[in-house]
Amino acid sequence: MISTLGLRLKLAREKAGLSQRQLAERIGTGGSQQAINKIENGGTVMPRKELLDSLCTELKIEPSWLLTGLDGLERVDQESLNLLLKWLELPNDENKPLKS
């Protein structure tokens, strides 16, 4: 399993044969090359829901795979996935990771 969201995004982007700039252009106002770079390099822990949806649509990947790394053969606890999706819908200043 690929360990981080950033590595999964990079893998899917490269598999689609796209540069970060090309992907940013294809998804339009939902993202920028800088935003994609930050995700791939771990600078963004969780992208906005709109950006996540645009990336998954363009790259033809499942959001659950991008977020968790689990493919169709592995099971994601539905309650955990629902909580994660609700968290993504929060305004950006409210869905920051908690610091321990």
Structure, described:
With 100 residues, this protein is an all-alpha fold. It has a single domain, classed as lambda repressor-like DNA-binding domains (434 Repressor (Amino-terminal Domain)), CATH 1.10.260. Helices cover 56% and strands 0% of the residues. It is globular and about 35 Å long. The chain starts with a helix and ends in an 11-residue tail after the last helix. The mean pLDDT is 81.
Question: What is the CATH-assigned architecture?
Answer: Orthogonal Bundle
Helicity range of the residues? 55-70%
SSE-based structural type: mainly alpha
Residue windows where pLDDT falls under 50 for at least 5 positions: none
Reading the helices and strands in chain order gives: HHHHHH
End-to-end distance: 26 Å
Question: How are the SSEs placed, and which strands pair?
Answer:
Elements: H1 5-15, H2 20-27, H3 33-40, H4 49-59, H5 63-68, H6 78-89
Helix pairs in contact: 1-3, 2-3
Task: Sum up the structure in keywords.
100 residues, mainly alpha, 434 Repressor (Amino-terminal Domain), 0% strand
Gist of the model:
The chain contains 6 helices and no strands. The protein is mostly helical.
